[in-house]
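Researcher: Going back to the complex we discussed earlier. I've cleaned up the inputs and rechecked each line, so this should be the final set. Can you rerun the prediction on the complete assembly and write out the structure?
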Amino acid sequence: MNDKKQIKRDIEKALANENLRGALGRFGDDYVGSRERAYTGKNFEELRNQIASIKGGAAERMEELAQRFTVSAQARGAKVFHAGTAREAKEYIKNLAAEKGATKIVKSKSMATEEIHLNEFLSRQGLDSVETDLGEWILQLCGQKPSHMVMPAIHMTRNEVADIFSRKTARELTADIPQLVGVAREQLRKKFLAADIGISGANIAVAETGSLVIVTNEGNARLTTTLPPVHVAVVGLEKLVDKFTDVKPILEALPRSATGQKITSYITMITGPTPAVYPDGNAREKELHIILLDNGRTEMQCDPVFKEALQCIRCASCLNVCPVFQLLGGHVYGHIYTGGIGTILTAFFNGFQNAGEIQNLCLGCERCKNFCPGMINIPKLIRELRSRVVEKNSLPGSQKFVLEKVLPNRKLFHSLLKTARVAQKPFVSGAKVRHLPMFLAGLTEGRSLPPLAEEALRDRMKKLRGPVKAGNKVGFFAGCLTDFVYPQMGEAAHKVLKSMNVEMVFPAEQSCCGVPAVLMGSRQAAARIARQNITSFDGAGVDHILTCCPSCAHALKSQYVELLEQDPAWRDRAKEFAAKVLHFTDFVIQRSDGGKKLALKKDSGKVTYHDSCHMKGCLGLSSQPRQLIKEAGLELVEMNGSDKCCGFGGSYSVKFPEVSAQILDKKLESIEKTGADIVALDCPGCMLQISGGLDSRDNKMPVKHTVEILAEKL
Amino acid sequence: MVDNELGQLFEKFKEQAEAISARVYRVSDPPAAGRQLNNIIKELNVKKMTAATSNMVSRCIKEIGSSGVTVYTRDLRRHAEDAELGLSEVDLAIAETGTLAQDSTGLDQRLVSSLPLIHVALVRTDRLVNTFGDAVDHFYERDPLPGYIAFISGPSRTADIERVLTIGVHGPEQLHIIFIDQAGGEPGE
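Model: Rerun complete. Updated structure for the full complex:
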C-alpha cells in the first residue's frame, strides 16, 4: 500500500489541500505557545523523566503488570480478556454483542479500536456502532480516517462538516460551528440513551488497582461509561502502569502536551463495574469487560531498541511540532498512527512493510525529541527503522556505490565533484546554479544551488598561516559543504581562531561526517566512516575538534557513540572523540568571554537569526550566536518561528523536493517580514537552502554564517 | 488549614475555573447556597431540575420554594434526560487547575452532572486542595478505591471543527460552582 508512488500521490494531494495547510499551519503556530503557557510553573524535564521511568519500567514488566491488572480488576468485578491479535479482540466483542442481543453501540474515542478497524468490522456484523467524539463522528459519516491522534478531523473545514451533517439530518445546515456542534449533541444524545453497549479506550490502566483512566473534553466518554449497561474498554498493553499514583505525572503532562490545556474537561477513573439502568428500568451493577490488546506490543517490548516507543502517552506533540506533518497532515502516513511516533507504531502494529516508505518522510530535524513527554528518542528510532528496512531490502547499486566507495574516499569524492562542476557550468548563472538536468532537477526546485568552490578548503588550508606562537591547538572538521562548497567558512574560522591565538589543524584523512549514510539507512557504511574520521584526528594532538556545521557536530558527538556502541574496540574511542567535538560558535563563546575578547569592530545593521534544527535542538545553542552578533554591534530582529526548520534535511530535499520547497517558502516569508539586512545562521546546509531560496525569489539579502560575520569584524 | 490559606486557594481556584468558563460563587452556609441556586434558576428560567441527594443538597433545595421549578431526586435516569439543570455535591476542589473531583460511583451523581445543560456543583470551602496530585492521593487513601472518580474542569468543550473552541458538547454547557464556608455535618452525607 505504501509504495513510493502512492506516497508521492498522497503528498501531491495533501499539498494541494489548502484547508489542511491552513488549519495545521495555524495550529502548529499556536501550539508551541499554548503548550508553554500550560506548563508554566511545571518542570517539564522533571515530569518527563518521571514518566519515562514509570512507562519504561512498566514496559519492561508488561506481562507481569497485565497479570496483576487482571487479578485486581477481576477482584473488583470486571471481566478481563487478553487479546493477542486484532482479530481476537474483535471476535470477543462480536460474541459479547451476540450473547447480550445487543445491536446498538456507542463508542468514545479510542486509537486502539481505530488500530484494529473495529467500526468496519462491527458494521459488517450488522451492528450499529456510532463514534461519539465529534471529530470521529464526522469522519465516520464521510468514511474517512483520522489524520491526527488528538484532533482526528483537523483536515476538514466547517463547510465540509455542514455538508456532511446536512446530508445526515436531511436539513439545510449552515457552516456555523456552534450550530453544528448542537446538531451533533442532539443526534448523538439519542444514540447514547438507546445504546446497549458502550465501547471506550483508556489512556492509562493501573495494575495495582485494576483502574482505567480516560481523558476527554467533550463528555462523551462519561456518557459512554454511564448510560449503557455494558461497558467494553479496549486497552493496549502499553497503557499499563504499576501503581495508582503513577497516573499523576502522566495526567499532568498529557493535556498540556496534547492541546496546551492544564487539564481536560474530564478525567474519569473507573475501577470495577458501577451501577447502570438496564432496559427493564432497574439500576444494578453494569458489566465491565476490559480487553487487553497485544497486537504487536509484546514484539515491540522484546526489541531492545524499539521498546522505548512503549513510553508513548499518545499526546501527539511530536506531530504538532513536525514540519512535515504540519504541511502534509496525517493521511500521507497511510495508517492510523501518524507523524514520527506513528511511523514507529505502524511498523509494529501494522507490519514493517508499511513503514518502509513512510519512514522516509522524516526530515531528521530532531525537533520532536525535545517535546516528547515520554522522553522517546523518536529520531533515533526512525533511523533504526530505516537501517532495518535497508538491511532487509538492501540499497540500490548506485546508492551503495556512493556510500561504500565515494563517501569514505575524499579524493574520489572530490574528483567526482570536480567532474560534476564542469558539468554544471552551463547551468551556472551569476553565482548560483539555477537548473540541473534530469534526475538532479529536484535539487534546484524552489531554490538555486551554489556552484562548487574552485578550490576546496582542504587545498586552501595549505596556504593559511596560523598564529606565530599559538597558545592552543584545535582540530577542524569541515564536512562536505564547508570543504567543497563554502570553503570561505573554514577560512573565516581560521582567521577568528588566529585572532584568539589558537592554531587550527586540518587532518586531510577526514571525510564526510556520515549523516547521509545514516539517513539512507546504511549503518555499516556510517560506522566505517565514523572509524575513519576518529582515526584521522588520532595524531592531531588536539583537545578540541571544531566544526561550523551543527549536523556534523551532532553526528560526531552523538551518532558515532550510537553507531559504535556495540563495538568493544571502538566504543570508548568514540566517546573520547565525541567529548572533544564542539560547534565553532560554542568554542568562541567559551574562549572569548562571550565574544568580548575578540574586540570586534562595531557595525550597524539589522540581522535576523535562523536557528538551525540541529544547532538549537541537538546542541542546545541558540543564545550563543545571538550574543556574538550583538557583540559585533548588529541589531537583532527576531523572525517569526526562528527555530522552525528550513526544509533542507540533506538528501531529503532531493527525495521530497516538493515538501522541502514548501517548508522553505514559509521560512523565507518569515525572513522577509523582518526587514532585516542580513540573515545569520550557523549551518552550511541551512545556508545552501535559504540562500538558494532567496536567490530564486531574486532577493539579494545576504546569508552569513556567524563565523563569517565575526571574521569580517576583526 | 487556616482561613487565610483557604482564601488564597479559593482565589486561585476561582481564577483558574473562570479561565475555563466555569462560574464560581462563595457563600456562608447551605441556605445561602440555596438562594444562589435560586438566582441561577430564575436567571436561566429553569423549569425542571434533578438533584443527586446529600445532606447539603437537601438543605440547599429547601430554599428554592416557589420559583416555579420542579425538583426531581428519584428516577433520575428518566428525568435527567430532559431536565435543564442538575445539582450535586462534589468532594474536592483543586485550586491549581480549577477542577472539581467527585466520587461518582453512585449513578445519580453521574447522571445529574452529565446529561443536563446546566450543572450546579456544591462544595465545602474547606475541601479545597492545591494540586491534582493532592486529589489523587486523597482518593487513593480511601478503602475501597471509589469505582468511578470524576474530575470535572469547566463545562464540556470541543475544538474538533477547525480548532474553534466551542463550549457545550455532550456534557453541560454551563458549570456553576458554589463554595460553602460553614457547611456543617460531614461531607457527602
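Model: Worth noting: Chain A touches chain B through 62 residues (CB under 8 Å).
Researcher: Good, that matches what I expected from the previous run.
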